[in-house]
């Protein structure tokens, strides 16, 4: 690993008429410059570039190269990077990235450089995806995006112009057993260690001083010391180095050429596998089977990483977090937030997850959002802050209170990315619950964005240059409109079971917009306030794909049309086993029930959403008609297999579609075209 230069990237990030941002991670410090080319006539474009760099570890340098100029629209553009330092000089060609025959190639056939374009006259064409677990079942659907570009790289009328990653780009809480030792190796080699025992002295004592670094050894630590509620925390990421290693391994094939997945027997022989009952052969056999199954899933994804890197190098990419990017159930309830914030170790882990999100995802979304003072604070954190000191505590407070993760992407139409994790509002008023003869007041679900959050989001939207009457895409990691039968099932059983002490809200991620009527109503109210000419919501999170069209009439006479398109998962099929069979059966039943049916509902004065009835009360704040759009061919309204979404926005209609890989072949499934 000593000879590695580029650890991940390049990733094409924010792209505008006058600026282009390119992200890249290297193993040592370089002066990096960029050149842009008009690939139609081969000319070098007049530009200048500025590179900001942060040393995030002993051998990890993260760079954001910002290129400035006046770039032509509707023209295929390409870029090259040069790396100078320590007597070395490299460019993308010398690294093998520009040769189609090289395994490291990031170019498409017939195109000399990684490429992109700025759309002006063509119909807006976007890809969007969520929920990519590295050891997910099935074929990684992000490779479908790469396959689409492979066939349409030079045909701009068919080529998507941007990729939206709408949450759970990594699964920090659900790490495969064979992957954990690789993450530990990469973290130790490139980033360095953290003295976690300074935050909780028990980690320096038996048995935790050893189980902390063993495969499957972190469940008790995460649950009891960090106060996390993740359902599978056996190998939960904890240090910044581990989070960073997960990103490097997920986005780049480079490190996979220097490391390998160890076998189960290797780990057992070295006493690096944690067993609850070390002498129990049944437990050992069960763990062996799980390990070997996960190894098979990992090997398939590892083989796809090369194609993922090529896609990210050739597509302007915008990213927002959801819970798994930090930890499952992140800020699920006020109690969760309070318990974790009072745990020095838990608070530190969340801070590391957020710092890694910024370094690998957030920074490139809108670089100017992070001023020099913020960058210097990050440099200080990585370079000098010692865990457990007052300065470290102050830094954690700063990151926990940071509220500007939301942003507007400069696409056409503009895309507003919502932060539904750190802007929450927890209602203190109890919710009355009745189950049989049990009557109890319970905790309400959170508002995914509170009043202060909406105020900041509105300010950001208008400061971006967007104005009332323009079309608008809203990226909400959690869908505004869910699948009714699933949400109704959860609503019917989660609150009652929670009322008798069973924490099913933690087991089942009970946090849709629908579960807090005020939050749902506030979302709609802001759409009314902004009054876009077209409103499209892109979502993920729920592990199924669907398209919903809503027409809303407000009491004041304002009408709105909202189209929501959801794509999930890109690599994490979840509807397996008995539970999966039951859910798939329910979904099929629901699909048939809703085929060709318009669902009518309204909001009452208490912000409850009421279904049914053709004539809602005259004093209802709003009423709406919902239509679940079917796929073509066929009548199903949902897709539960791995997928990424494609959205083509025409002058009079919108065409949603799903892209999947089936047996190595690209499969495109279109929904009905919708006029909005």
Explain this structure.
With 676 residues, this protein is of the alpha+beta class. 30% of the residues lie in helices and 24% in strands. It is built from 16 helices and 28 strands. The strands form five sheets. Strands 13, 14, 17, 18, 19, 20, 21, 22, 23 and 25 form a ten-stranded mixed beta sheet that branches. A seven-stranded mixed beta sheet has the order 12-11-10-26-27-28-24. Strands 3, 4, 7, 8 and 9 form a five-stranded antiparallel beta sheet that branches. Helix 1 runs parallel beside helix 7 and helix 5 runs parallel beside helix 9. The N and C termini lie far apart (53 Å). Mean pLDDT is 91; it is low at 493-509.
Descriptive labels:
single chain; 676 residues; alpha+beta; ten-stranded mixed sheet; seven-stranded mixed sheet; 28 strands
Structural class: alpha+beta
Helix content: 25-40%
Output the radius of gyration: 25 Å
Q: Number of helical segments?
A: 16
Can you count the beta strands? 28
Calculate the terminal CA-CA distance, rounded to whole Å: 53 Å
Q: What does the average pLDDT come to? A: 91
Shape, please? globular
pLDDT under 50 segments (min length 5)?
493-509
Strand coverage percent = 15-25%
Largest sheet: 10 strands, mixed
Compact description:
The chain is α+β, with helices and mostly antiparallel strands. The protein contains 16 helices and 28 strands. The strands form 5 sheets. Strands 13, 14, 17, 18, 19, 20, 21, 22, 23 and 25 form a 10-stranded mixed β-sheet that branches. A 7-stranded mixed β-sheet has the order 12-11-10-26-27-28-24. Strands 3, 4, 7, 8 and 9 form a 5-stranded antiparallel β-sheet that branches.
């Amino acid at each position: 690993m000593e000879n590695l230069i580029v650890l991940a990237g390049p990733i094409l990030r924010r792209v505008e008429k006058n600026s282009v941002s390119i992200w890249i991670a290297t193993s040592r410090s370089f002066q990096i410059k960029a050149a842009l080319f008009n690939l139609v006539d081969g000319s070098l474009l007049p530009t200048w570039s500025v590179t900001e760099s942060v040393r995030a570890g002993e051998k990890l340098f993260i760079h954001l190269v910002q290129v400035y100029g006046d770039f032509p629209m509707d023209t295929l553009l390409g870029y090259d990077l040069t790396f100078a330092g320590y007597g070395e000089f490299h460019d993308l060609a010398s690294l093998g990235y520009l040769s189609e025959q090289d395994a490291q190639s990031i170019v498409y056939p017939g195109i000399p450089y990684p490429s992109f374009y700025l759309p002006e006259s063509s119909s807006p064409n976007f890809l969007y995806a969520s929920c990519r677990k590295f050891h997910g079942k099935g074929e990684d659907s992000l490779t479908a995006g790469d396959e689409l570009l492979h066939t349409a790289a030079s045909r701009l009328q068919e080529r998507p112009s941007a990729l939206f990653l709408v949450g759970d780009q990594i699964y920090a809480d659900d790490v495969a057993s064979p992957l954990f030792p690789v993450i530990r190796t990469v973290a130790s080699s490139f980033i360095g260690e953290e003295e976690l025992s300074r935050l909780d002295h028990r980690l320096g004592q038996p048995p935790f001083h050893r189980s902390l670094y063993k495969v499957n050894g972190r469940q008790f630590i995460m649950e009891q010391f960090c106060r996390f509620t993740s359902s599978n925390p056996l190998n939960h990421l904890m240090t910044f180095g581990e989070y960073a290693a997960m990103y490097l391994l997920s986005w780049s094939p480079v490190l996979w050429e220097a490391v390998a997945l160890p076998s189960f027997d290797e780990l057992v022989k070295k006493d690096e596998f944690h067993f609850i009952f070390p002498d129990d052969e049944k437990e050992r056999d069960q763990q062996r089977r799980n390990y070997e199954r996960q190894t098979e899933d990992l090997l398939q994804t590892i083989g796809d990483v090369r194609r993922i890197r090529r896609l990210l190098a050739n597509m302007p990419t915008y990213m927002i977090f959801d819970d798994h990017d930090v930890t499952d159930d992140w800020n699920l309830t006020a109690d969760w937030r309070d318990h974790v914030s009072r745990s020095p170790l838990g608070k530190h882990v969340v801070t590391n997850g957020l710092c890694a999100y910024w370094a690998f995802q957030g920074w490139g979304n809108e670089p100017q959002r992070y001023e020099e003072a913020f960058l210097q604070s990050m440099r200080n954190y990585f370079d000098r802050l010692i865990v457990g000191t007052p300065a470290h505590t102050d830094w954690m407070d700063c990151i926990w209170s940071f509220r500007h993760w939301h942003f507007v992407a400069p696409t056409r139409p503009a895309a507003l990315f919502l932060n539904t994790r750190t802007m929450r509002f927890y209602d203190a008023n109890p919710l009355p619950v009745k189950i049989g003869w049990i009557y109890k007041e319970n905790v309400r679900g959170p508002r995914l964005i509170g009043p202060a959050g909406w105020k900041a989001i509105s300010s950001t939207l208008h400061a971006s240059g967007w104005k009332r009457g323009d079309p608008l895409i809203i990226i909400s990691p959690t869908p505004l409109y869910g699948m009714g039968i699933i949400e109704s099932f959860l609503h019917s059983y989660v609150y009652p079971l929670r009322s008798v002490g069973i924490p099913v809200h933690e087991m089942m991620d009970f946090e849709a917009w629908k579960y807090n009527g005020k939050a749902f109503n506030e979302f709609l109210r802001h759409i009314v306030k902004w009054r876009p000419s077209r409103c499209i919501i892109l979502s993920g999170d729920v592990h199924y794909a669907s398209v919903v069209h809503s027409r809303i009439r407000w009491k004041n006479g304002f009408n709105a049309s909202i189209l929501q398109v959801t794509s999930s998962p890109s690599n994490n099929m979840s509807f397996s086993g008995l539970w999966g069979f039951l859910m798939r059966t329910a979904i099929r039943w629901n699909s048939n029930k809703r085929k060709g049916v318009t669902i009518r509902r309204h909001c009452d004065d208490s912000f409850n959403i009421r279904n049914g009835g053709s004539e809602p009360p005259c004093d209802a704040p709003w009423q709406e008609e919902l239509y679940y759009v079917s796929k073509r061919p066929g009548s199903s309204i949902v897709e539960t297999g791995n997928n990424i979404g494609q959205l083509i926005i025409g002058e009079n209609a919108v065409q949603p579609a799903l892209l999947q890989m089936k047996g190595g072949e690209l499969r495109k499934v279109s929904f009905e075209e919708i006029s909005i």
